[in-house]
Amino acid sequence: MTIEAITLGGERMQLNMGPHHPATHGVLRIRVESDGEIVSSCIPDHGYLHRSIEKIGECIEWPMFVPYTDRVDYVCAMNANLAYCVAVEKLLNTDPATAVVVPRRAECIRVLVAELNRISSHLIAVGAMAMDVGAYTPFLHGIAQREHVNDIFEKLCGQRLTYNYVTVGGVAFDLHETASEEIASFLDQFEKEMVRFNKLITTNTIFRDRCANLAVVTAAEAIAWGLVGPNLRGSGVDWDLRRDEPYGLYGELGVRVPKGERYAGRKGAVGDCYDRYIVRLLEIQESVRLCREVLKLLPPAAGKANDPIGGHQADVSKVLKRPPKGFVHCRTEAPRGEMGYFLVSDGTKVPYRVRVRTGSFSAAGIFHKVMRGIFLADVVAVIGSFDVVVPEIDR
Amino acid sequence: MNGMTFEAIAARIAQVCDEAMVVRSENGQPFVRVPAAALPRVAALLRRDPALLCDALMDLTGYDRLKYPGNEASPANDAIAVVYLLFSQQHHHRVMLEVQAPRALCSVPTVSGLWPAALYFEREVFDLLGVQFVGHPSLERILCPDDWVGHPLRKDYLYPAQYHGVPHLREGQHFDGAPRRQGDPEPTPTPAPTKKGHP
């Protein structure tokens, strides 16, 4: 059904959604023009949260940028830390003189915190999407579980949202003595809780019918429009950087990748809102499995921090003063998809250029295409299904 | 992972564009430098050729070379480098293109007709680096306000002293330590410290 086919021919109405709107997940303004109840055009207006993080990156030293990556995406700050640190390590490893070997224990801890943060980020995504379409309770169940993850992180590094935990060459602190048991017991109770969550909303017919066949993005469109991560997989593209371009420990873990398969049944289509929603839920399950695997692999702590097996932090203070000249592009899989860093170094302790490519930015780019011809009330469901986090768009 | 190697891709590009140059950065990262005029030809080849088929634009960004120290392969200049990072979801190979746009007449043909993802990326590069993408349907600022002056990621960017009456000076000084300019608001005198120090 296209807008041309169902146009009412009446007066067009201009409507401003945002900048302060509960369903835009941050400070995002969308200029919607509607024809009756049908959206005829939808133009996002960005920049309300622009903090010039890329410009700041050109003014401060390499390791000092890590806290800013927290603010690039504060819903999954561990993954944002990790993306930058992996990129800087890749830059350092282009020259054998400055090569960094991350201790194995640190690699395990990195996967552990990244997957835990992926769980909490996806809980926000699916919970907020359900809330936007009118189901408030699942969101609270999601938030309650996220609170446990925040508690684990608070005990680990003292922060609940912006962690500054993953560092270049390792992680800032070792796991405390009871951390493994705490994470394992959280995972056990969390799996039971997810059964209840799915009963509440995932299998709900009203919710499923609302999201089925809404804002369908085909696989070719998703690739061409630069969608990444769960949005790309929701359209049926079998691609996950953790499996296909592995970094850190992911190569050993054998990540299983879910993709959109018309989960809404015959009413749905591959790449609709419901597929993107289900892919996130399946990724949560996979993250739980990865956490358990990593807990088995975790080597015991050694006394020294820079021990290649049991340490948690390689010594990089000298090499970061004189990194290799040149550039590097490195992408990692964050909950909102590929987080790519393009780093240019002129051989000094200050980066020459820090470029962050985030998943939400390109997801916002497709809004004006998928919103045309849908109902005004479905706009919030579509925004929720793409899981945009506005600080990631504006940076 | 059975895509083409970088050398094979570069050889294929050289067939349609004589001026294409294979360059390695100081740390050994290979890329293809093409002149701006040849970009539509090269981009269309990379997008459409069945053996290349780079259907995904991983990133489109740029950097100002004004203060970048040169080397033999890329001597120092004051151009704006626009960088295209392409990837093929079909063949799983990647290639990086670089176009150097002269600082004064900074314009590059758009690739948004080939990759719609470039619609947003090019707006961002225009906003922050001031590259005009010829043929882009709506080349407007995306992150900065529409009436912002200058392009912040250029290395010779001067911070504005104020924006709509909001001063951008800190204790009368510009953020980047630049000297005071005509029209800057007067700094408010800081109170002299008392003998006891701070209360």
Features:
heterodimer; A: 395 residues; alpha+beta; Cytochrome-c3 Hydrogenase, chain B; 2 domains; three-stranded antiparallel sheet; B: 199 residues; Beta Polymerase, domain 2; two-stranded parallel ribbon; 3 helices; 22% strand
What does this structure look like?
The complex is a heterodimer of chains A (395) and B (199). Chain A has 17 helices and 8 strands. Chain A is of the alpha+beta class. Chain A folds into 2 domains: 1-50 and 374-388, no CATH class; 102-321, Cytochrome-c3 Hydrogenase, chain B, CATH 1.10.645.10. A 3-stranded antiparallel beta sheet of chain A has the order 1-2-3. Chain A has a 3-stranded antiparallel beta sheet with strand order 6-7-8. Chain B has a domain at 6-144: 2-Layer Sandwich (Beta Polymerase, domain 2). Chain B is built from 3 helices and 9 strands, in the order H-E-E-H-E-E-E-E-H-E-E-E. In chain B, the strands form 3 sheets. Chain B has a 5-stranded mixed beta sheet with strand order 1-2-5-4-3, covered by helices on one side. In chain B, strand 6 (107-109), helix 3 and strand 7 form a beta-alpha-beta unit. At the A-B interface, helix 9, strand 6, strand 7, strand 8 and helix 14 of A face strand 3 and helix 3 of B.
What is the fold-level CATH name, i.e. the topology of one domain in chain B? Beta Polymerase, domain 2
Structural class determined from secondary elements of chain A: alpha+beta
Per DSSP E runs of 2 or more residues, the count of β-strands of chain A stands at 8
Mean pLDDT score of chain B, rounded? Answer: 83
Strand content of chain B: 15-25%
Elements of chain B, N to C (H/E): HEEHEEEEHEEE
* Full CATH superfamily name of one domain in chain B: NADH:ubiquinone oxidoreductase Nqo5 subunit
End-to-end gap of chain A:
36 Å
**Proportion of residues in helical segments of chain A:** 40-55%
Number of helices of chain B: 3
Largest sheet geometry of chain A:
3 strands, antiparallel
Low-confidence stretches of chain B: none
Question: How many E strands of chain B?
Answer: 9
Structural class of chain B: alpha/beta
By oligomeric state, this entry counts as heterodimer
In which order are the strands of the major sheet of chain B placed?
Answer: 1-2-5-4-3
Biggest sheet details of chain B? 5 strands, mixed
Question: Any idea what the CATH architecture of the largest domain in chain A is?
Answer: Orthogonal Bundle
Which CATH architecture of one domain in chain B is right? 2-Layer Sandwich
Overall 3D geometry of chain A?
A: globular
Give the mean pLDDT of chain A: 87
